[in-house]
Amino acid sequence: MEQELRNKVKAAAKNYYNEIFGTKKPRKYIPVSGKVLDADDLMNMIDATLDMWLTAGRFNEEFERQFSAWLGVKYALSTNSGSSANLLALSALTSHKLGEKRLKRGDEVITVAAGFPTTVNPIIQQGLIPVFVDSELKTYNIDVGKIEEAITPKTRAIFVAHTLGNMFDMEHILKICQKYNLWLIEDSCDALGAVWKGKKAGTIGHIGTYSFYPAHHMTMGEGGAVVTNDPQLYRIILSLRDWGRDCWCKPGVDNTCKNRFKMQLGNLPFGYDHKYTYSHIGFNLKITDWQAALGLSQLKKLPVFLERRKQNAAYLLEHLRNLEEYLVLPTVSTQVEPSWFGFLISVKPSAPFSKQQLVEYLENKGIGTRQLFAGNLLRQPAFTENEIPLRIGKGNIQYSNTLNEEDYKKLPNTDFIMNNTFWIGTFQGLEENDLKKICEIIQNFVKENVK
C-alpha cells in the first residue's frame, strides 16, 4: 500500500513537471550558468520528502557511494556547499590527529588572488598565512614557475582552484609538493569531471572539493562534497563536518565501533558515551536527504552535462578564433581534458576597446557575463579594511591594509585579469542558437569598434 501511494504521488509530480516546466520558453537573456532539471529530479526529491527523514539518510548514503565510485576515489563526504567543502578540507589539515604533519597557526599556505574568496578564506580563518602567487594568462591558473620562489621553511601546503574547469599543471605541482613535503588541496568546485592523465580533478591531491550550487556542473541547490583516498583524513573530515564528534556512526545508528562505553578519551571518565565525545572544534555542515536525492538524479545525467559543456566551449573557440588579434582566448594545459565551467576571454591592452565596453555591450544585448570572481582578491574591501597577515611571493609578512601599488605590482597578471578578463557561459542549458547569438554579437561589437 505504501509503495503504491508513493508511486501515485511521484506520478502526479511528473505530470506537474511536464505541465508547468515541460515547455521551453523563448530566452530574452542568455545566462552564463544555470540549473538543468527534469521530471526525474523532481520525482527523486518527492521520494525523499515522503520518507519524512529530512536530515542525511538513505539518499545521502547512496549519493556518497555513487559519487566516490564515479570519481574513482575511496571516500566522499557530502556537505552543504562548496565553500564548506573548502573549509572542511583546510581545517582537516590542522587536526591534532595528524601529529607533526598538522598545520599550525602561522604556517604558510600557497594560493592565488585571482579566484573565488572561499578558497582563501579558510586559510585566514584557521590562523594560517596565505602566500599569494601570480596567475598565468590564457589558462588563468596558478603560475607554477613562481611557486618555488615563494616557498619558505614555514610553507606547509598548496591550496588552489582549477580555474573554471581548466586544470592547473598537476605534474609540476605534484613534484613541488613531493620535494617540499607539502599538502595539496584541489579546489575542484568549478572543475567537476576535468581529467589529467586519466585521473579526475580533485582525486589527485590529498583532498579535493566540489560544489553543487545551481551554477555548477550538476546541482543539489545548495551542496558540495569533500573527497580523499586517505582513511585518516576521511575520519577527520567526517568529525569536523558532524559537530567535531569522535564517533563516526551514521544518523540514527549507534555503536558502530562496538566500544561505545569502553573508551577513555581526553580527561573524560572511562566509558563516557562515545556518541557524545568530541575530538575537534567542529561544525554542522551536513546536507538534507532531499538535496542528496536531487544529487543522485543529477549524477546520472552528469556525463551528458559534461559533454554538452565541452561541445559548447569548442563552438565558442571555433567561432571567436578570428578575433585573437584583439581577444585572448583560453588555452588548455598539456594532458588536460577540461570540464568547462565557463569560457574566459581577455581583452588585449592593444585592442581599440576595453573589457568594460565589451561587457556592457553584451549585457545590453541580453548576453550574460561574469568577472573571474574577485579579480584581485587583495584589492577587495575584505582585505583592504582588515588587518590580515599575508605574503605576496617572496618577501616579509605584511598586513593587507598597508598594501600599496608597489605590492600589487608583484601580481601583474592578477591585475590584468581584474582589468581585462570576463567569461561567458558554456553550461548544458545553452543550445547552438544561443551560442550562435553570443558569437554574432561579439563579432558585431568588434566590427563596430575596429576602424
Could you explain how this protein is built, in words?
It is built from 13 helices and 16 strands. The protein has 451 residues and is α/β, with parallel strands linked by helices. It folds into two domains: 42-291, Aspartate Aminotransferase, domain 2 (3-Layer(aba) Sandwich), CATH 3.40.640; 302-373 and 407-449, Aspartate Aminotransferase, domain 1 (Alpha-Beta Complex), CATH 3.90.1150.10. It has a nine-stranded mixed β-sheet, with helices on both faces. Helix 8 packs across helix 13 (432-449). The longest helix is centred in the last third of the chain and has 32 residues, at 289-320. The N and C termini lie far apart (74 Å).
Proportion in helices: 25-40%
Number of helices: 13
Q: What is the number of E strands?
A: 16
Low-confidence stretches: none
Task: Give me the strand/helix succession.
Answer: HHHEHEHEEHEEEEEHHEEEHEHEEHHEH
Q: So what's the CATH class of the largest domain?
A: Alpha Beta
CATH topology description of the largest domain: Aspartate Aminotransferase, domain 2
- Shape-level CATH architecture of the largest domain: 3-Layer(aba) Sandwich
Radius of gyration, rounded? 23 Å
Distance between the termini: 74 Å
Specify the structural class.
alpha/beta
SSE blueprint and pairings:
Elements: H1 2-20, H2 39-51, H3 58-71, E1 75-79, H4 82-92, E2 108-111, H5 117-125, E3 129-132, E4 155-161, H6 170-180, E5 183-187, E6 195-196, E7 199-200, E8 207-211, E9 224-228, H7 231-241, H8 289-320, E10 327-328, E11 336-337, E12 342-347, H9 355-364, E13 370-371, H10 381-384, E14 389-392, E15 398-399, H11 405-408, H12 412-420, E16 421-425, H13 432-449
Parallel strand pairs: 2-3, 2-4, 3-14, 4-5, 5-8
Antiparallel strand pairs: 1-9, 6-7, 6-11, 8-9, 10-12, 12-16, 13-16, 14-15
Helix pairs in contact: 1-2, 2-8, 3-8, 4-5, 4-7, 8-13
